[in-house]
Structure to design on (826 residues):
């Protein structure tokens, strides 16, 4: 039994059966397919034995949003228990091709992104193709698949470096930017905004070699592939971290995976993994730290707007409070109104699946009502899949908060 | 980001304190590991059991028990705190009934009569004086809701001389087929069709049995309970009252929502999932605390602090394997029975209670924590609620009263 398994075993003994987690779980609230965190978590865990067949299939309906962890009064790590139980099911019964495919966001992204992207995107909008994908693959025909970008973030960054238009190294303050698959292949604009903000604050941005953080592999239960992905990232990032250069990312799920999800759920605990975890920051966490030290450039242009903001579960799982709200409150005129909904439902790849699409839409209903009712033409959210889900469900455009911050610096195109 | 006041613990005591400070225009943050006793307590306000006049009993206690929290904060804090809570509940259209001079006796799910000082208006039609008016009462429930047995409750009421019958209702059709915990039912009751169908069955029962009032499990709506009860009464043609259920407690959650909404309106913040592990101070000034977060701790800075972590049951105190009690957030000195053998009474249900439940943090009249020698540990910390030593909230029946009085006092200074 490894360290995490031991602590999970112990944490389940802290369960006092109060059912607070079940009362808060957004999935159990909308469907009978999922009996709730207490039942599939601490309760079922007692029946999951090393050499016994897995007792439950319903745990697959856990979206991994971690709302249960957030509210549990005794600190039971329910979401981790569920992730591990799902991996046991996968180990025993194998990974369906659909899940294998959507867990490989890097592969899919690489194949879709580039000059041929318009073609790919047209294909994805083509009804009969989606119908086929639903029948053959089990990807719901209405699910919000992102549009591929005609150029990748890395290509943009390298082109710019060659042209010498980025600021030159001043050799003092450097950060490694972790872009993740979504920024690289679908939304380079988020990475461009992040780079603009970091450079504005005097940092030289280094584009270290990196690969997918492995989160979709973890949430689909493919732990073997996830371990490989994380080990590769650790190898690539370690040299920078060892020099004291922080790794900063704007994809809050990537940074959470580097910081905690991969080490904890995959049971990777050596010194290298820990060093990378401790050296990684979400971009607003990083900026808030700067602000607290009085080092943040606060020469913002006023933005007279009120915008709805959804702190995604993946952000709340960092357990840092609301750094985007703290930093953006420094922009004159800008008001962010906090969504109180627990989850948008999509949970990465969860809401793409044919059998889970409607659950995801029902889970997100309170958030969608909030965004629609707000009446703005823009919503803010740190997580890419959440943004796509919000826009899919409400028709309201969505941006990463870093894009607004870049705008406040006058850096937006 | 520095705050004026940081409150640790999101139970009744912590939220009352946070509301007080935020009401004076301070920047307030509430840090809590998870939800507190609000999510499992009855939603009634216990001030002191054992006397028909709770306030007179508190007066007497103040003479006999100089170290009881009521004695330390004084009568005005209790009365003003209760008045504040009443006003907040009234503003939220969820009024509390009763007063501090005459206790209420309200039926439990087993049909016993339990004393309390105030109760939500949705419960008062079941008060003992009403039950005794000679007209029969119906207790109704659903077979799908576990641990609520109308025939049993009715039989126990009859044994105490109150005419009563029990019946099961048929659960109206809904999207749900399996899980019917109190929260799922509360959400269903918020839909008009569901209410109308339950109301129709109730009207039939009332016509048949000539009932003056109907007791239902306390699941009549999560956010709009007053409206749900009013509507059901109109359908049924009899008074409706709620009876508390096993956790999660819907009326407790309503109370939490009332306080949470009020605090957010005043600009306060609540950060759940934040386990405070240690504090950092100079001399007798607490300067920062550290909460658990992904990959590394988060540091929080404030001028003043409130510790409302709920003692042994709330997780604020924990026993170490070698039999010492530790305060989990700041490591404050705990006043407890000396030896482990002294923690317990011989009998499980000993009327004198178990001494360990009076363990907690010794405080002075300003609620500042004291060490074994009676010296102030931190001058800028106030302790509120069950974390305070020298009383037993469960046995004395004063959980909410002490939380409100001390929370109010900690928020006022
Ligand atoms: C299952 C159960 C049933 C109970 N039933 C009853 C009952 O019927 N009647 C009764 O009178 N009492 C009951 N109790 C006891 C009751 O829970 C306590 O008396 C109560 O906790 C006191 O309220 P409070 O506001 O002081 O704290 P709580 O409501 O307990 O709130 C404590 C808060 O502090 C947080 N916290 C604790 N430690 C930390 C930390 N280190 N860092 C950050 N946050 C922290 C918690 O997450 C929580 O938000 C019950 C307890 C349990 C466990
Ligand atoms: S909230 Fe925590 S303690 Fe309560 S039932 Fe769930 S896991 Fe158990
Ligand atoms: S992680 Fe989310 S979906 Fe899964 S059990 Fe917890 S609250 Fe429910
Ligand atoms: S998709 Fe968004 S809101 Fe939904 S589970 Fe993920 S982070 Fe949470």
């Amino acid at each position: 039994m490894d360290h995490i398994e031991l602590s999970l075993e112990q944490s389940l003994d802290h369960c006092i059966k109060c059912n607070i987690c079940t009362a808060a779980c957004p999935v159990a609230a909308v469907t009978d397919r999922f009996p709730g965190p207490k039942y599939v978590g601490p309760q079922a865990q007692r029946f999951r034995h090393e050499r016994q067949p897995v007792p439950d299939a319903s745990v697959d309906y856990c979206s991994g949003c971690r709302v249960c962890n957030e509210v549990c009064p005794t600190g039971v790590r329910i979401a981790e228990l569920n992730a591990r139980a799902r991996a046991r099911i996968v180990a025993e019964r194998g990974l369906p091709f659909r899940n294998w495919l959507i867990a490989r966001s890097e592969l899919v992204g690489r194949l879709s992104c580039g000059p041929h992207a318009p073609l790919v995107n047209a294909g994805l909008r083509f009804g009969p193709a989606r119908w086929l994908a639903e029948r053959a693959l089990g990807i719901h025909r209405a699910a919000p698949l992102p549009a591929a970008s005609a150029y990748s973030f890395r290509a943009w960054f390298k082109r710019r470096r060659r042209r010498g238009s980025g600021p030159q190294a001043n050799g003092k303050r450097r950060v490694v930017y972790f872009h993740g698959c979504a920024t690289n292949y679908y939304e380079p604009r988020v990475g461009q905004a992040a780079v603009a903000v970091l450079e504005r604050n005097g940092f030289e941005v280094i584009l270290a070699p990196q690969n997918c953080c492995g989160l979709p592999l973890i949430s689909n239960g493919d732990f073997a592939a996830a371990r490989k992905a994380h080990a590769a990232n650790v190898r690539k990032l370690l040299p920078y971290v060892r020099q004291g250069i922080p790794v900063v990312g704007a994809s809050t799920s990537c940074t959470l995976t580097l910081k905690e999800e991969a080490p904890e759920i995959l049971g990777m605990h050596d010194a290298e993994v820990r060093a990378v975890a401790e050296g990684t920051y979400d971009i607003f966490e990083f900026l808030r730290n700067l602000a607290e030290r009085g080092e943040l450039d606060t020469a913002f242009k006023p933005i007279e707007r009120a915008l709805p903001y959804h702190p995604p579960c993946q952000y709340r799982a960092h357990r840092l409070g609301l750094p985007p709200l703290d930093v953006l409150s420094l922009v004159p005129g800008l008001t962010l109104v906090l969504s109180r909904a627990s989850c948008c439902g999509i949970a990465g790849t969860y809401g793409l699946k044919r059998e889970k699409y409607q659950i995801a839409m029902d889970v997100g209903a309170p958030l969608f009502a909030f965004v629609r009712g707000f009446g703005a033409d823009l919503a803010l959210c740190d997580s890419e899949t959440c943004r796509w889900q919000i826009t899919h469900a409400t028709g309201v455009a969505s941006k990463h908060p870093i894009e607004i911050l870049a705008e406040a610096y006058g850096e937006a195109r | 980001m520095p705050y004026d006041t940081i409150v640790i613990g999101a139970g009744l005591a912590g939220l009352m304190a946070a509301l007080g400070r935020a009401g004076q225009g301070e920047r307030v943050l509430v840090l809590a590991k998870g939800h507190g006793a609000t999510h499992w307590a009855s939603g009634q306000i216990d001030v002191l059991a054992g006397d028909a006049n709770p306030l007179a009993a508190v007066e007497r206690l103040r003479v006999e028990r100089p170290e009881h929290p009521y004695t330390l904060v004084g009568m005005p804090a209790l009365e003003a705190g209760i008045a504040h809570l009443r006003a907040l509940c009234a503003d939220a259209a969820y009024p509390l009934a009763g007063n501090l001079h005459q206790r209420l006796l309200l039926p439990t799910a087993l049909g016993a009569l339990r004393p309390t000082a105030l109760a939500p208006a949705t419960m008062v039609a079941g008060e003992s004086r009403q039950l005794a008016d000679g007209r029969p009462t119906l207790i109704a429930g659903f077979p799908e809701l576990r641990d609520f047995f109308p025939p049993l409750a009715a039989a126990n009421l009859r044994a105490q001389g109150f005419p009563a019958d029990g019946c099961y209702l048929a659960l109206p059709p809904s999207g749900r087929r399996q899980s019917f915990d109190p929260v799922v039912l509360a959400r269903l009751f918020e839909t008009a069709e569901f209410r109308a169908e339950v109301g129709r069955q109730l009207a039939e029962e009332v016509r048949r049995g000539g009932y003056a009032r109907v007791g239902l499990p306390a699941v009549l709506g999560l956010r709009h309970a007053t409206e749900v009860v009013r509507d059901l009464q109109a359908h049924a043609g009899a008074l409706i009252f709620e009876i508390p259920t096993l956790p999660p407690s819907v009326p407790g959650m309503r109370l939490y929502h009332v306080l949470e909404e009020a605090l957010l309106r005043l600009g306060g913040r609540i950060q759940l999932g934040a386990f405070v592990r240690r504090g950092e101070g100079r001399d007798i000034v607490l300067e920062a605390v550290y909460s658990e977060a992904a990959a590394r701790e988060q540091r929080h800075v404030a001028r003043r602090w409130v510790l409302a972590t709920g003692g042994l049951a709330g997780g604020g105190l924990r026993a170490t394997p070698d039999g010492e009690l530790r305060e989990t957030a700041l490591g404050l000195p705990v006043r407890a029975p000396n030896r482990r053998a002294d923690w317990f009474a011989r009998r499980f249900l000993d009327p004198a209670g178990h001494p360990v439940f009076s363990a907690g943090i010794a405080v002075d009249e300003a609620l500042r924590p004291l060490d074994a020698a009676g010296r102030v540990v931190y001058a800028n910390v106030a302790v509120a609620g069950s974390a305070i030593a020298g009383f037993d909230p469960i046995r004395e029946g004063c959980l909410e009263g002490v939380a409100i009085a001390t929370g109010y006092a900690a928020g006022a200074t």
Summary: The beta strands of chain A are 174-178, 204-206, 247-249, 280-282, 305-310, 334-338, 378-381, 397-399.
